[in-house]
Amino acid sequence: MNPQSIKFVIFAAFGALCLAAGYTARRRKWVTEQASRPVHFWTVVAIWAPITLLAFWDLPLNRQLLLLFVMQLLTLLVGWAAAWTAAKLLRLSPVPTGVLILCAALSNQGFTMGAYLCYTLFDPPDQAMAYAIAYVTAMQVFMVLIFYPVARHYGPDERMPVARLMLRSFFDVRALPIHLGIVGVILSALGAPYPRAINQYGLLEVMIYLGAAGGFFGIGLRFHAGDMLRVWPMHAATAAVRFVIVPLAAWGLLIVFAQTSLAPTALTDRVLFVEAFMPTAINGVIISNLFHLDARLASTLWLGSTIAFLALVMPFLMVLVG
Fold first, then answer.
1. Closest by Cα among 186, 283, 304, 174 to 237
2. 255, exposed or middle or buried, with CB in 10 Å at 0-12, 13-18, 19+?
3. pLDDT of res. 51
4. DSSP summary character for residue 310
5. pLDDT value of position 159
6. What per-residue confidence (pLDDT) applies to 305?
7. pLDDT tens across 255-273, in order?
8. From CA 29, how far away is CA 247, in angstroms rounded?
9. What pLDDT, on the 0 to 100 scale, is given for residue 7?
């Protein structure tokens, strides 16, 4: 195994340990299940928000970055539409509908799966990682602008017009990643020097591990093993959206963009292709938690999607890109 692959395996093992720690802590009643909400709140505000700032600050503002944003928006909308359709076919009530949309539309493209996978697969690894981080950072932006309002709409919060939902979500403290992301874009545009200590001492990787710890531990607190088979139709719907519909949409979009001024470079094309196959995002569980949807259901769908990816999709993907 090359050094990058070893890092991916270590990171995956770390995530599994954090997940098991949360699950064990709840089962032994050391921590209540409800503790997952503040764990996820502070993970988003105190860790993921600064990571978003650093990710944007360290990226050049060019057409490839614009392509990443446009591709992210379009694939998210495809996932949302497909999940909403599946929820209608399954005749789900509002809260499970919201959870299915979050878990099927948002995918684990960042530090805890997709970005690290691109880092291990492609050369140069650092540049592949940078594109993947930019892609998932774009998801953070649309997560606040689009999927926070979706969570409010299907959750117990007061119903309100879409424009007000988006405005309220933007000024919510839980939207701090998008605010610091804007700061990062400004710093990059102004040519402000990126702090050398971040790379010199590996501080970004430390923050990624801390963010993963909070995300996985909180999911472990919410996960109940007995729920896995009970919601098999929602597992099937999530898998269909994540592993069939979104990858096909991404493949078609890449063909279209190849004929435009936003044509992807070879590396960007491969990163976007791999990212299209990623399983459900940790963010699906976190948003469900933050906005009082069914985080227990979201945790179940997340784990089912992740297991399906590792067992079935990832070997197929390795053949395609290997």
1. 304
2. exposed
3. 81
4. I
5. 59
6. 94
7. 999 999 889 999 999 999 9
8. 41
9. 73
Of the candidates 63, 61, 130, 128, the one whose C-alpha atom is nearest the C-alpha of residue 274 is 128
- The tokens describing 13, both together, are 């093992």
Q: CB–CB of 264/272 below 8 Å? A: yes
Element spanning 160, H or E: none
| Identity of residue 142 | F
- Residue with the two structure tokens 């960007």: 268
DSSP symbol at 245 = I
- Confidence at residue 242, expressed as pLDDT on a 0 to 100 scale: 96
Question: What's the confidence (pLDDT) of residue 228?
Answer: 78
Three-state DSSP at 261 gives coil
Its pTM stands at 0.81
Listing DSSP states for 3-72 in one string gives HHHHHHHHHHHHHHHHHHHHHHHHHTTSS-GGGHHHHHHHIIIIIIHHHHHHHHHTS--SHHHHHHHHHH
Q: Where do we find the tokens 């096909």?
A: 248
**What is the predicted pLDDT for the residue at 12?**
79
10 Å CB burial of residue 36 (0-12, 13-18, 19+) is buried
Fold of 3-321: Na+/H+ antiporter like fold (1.20.1530)
| Longest distance between any two alpha carbons in the chain, whole Å | 57
Low-confidence ranges of the chain (pLDDT < 70): 1-5, 111, 157-163, 165-166, 169, 322
Which residue spans within 84-134 are E strands per DSSP?
none
Q: Pick the closest to residue 128 from 8, 243, 214 (CA basis).
A: 8
Contacts of 17 (CB under 8 A, 6+ apart): none
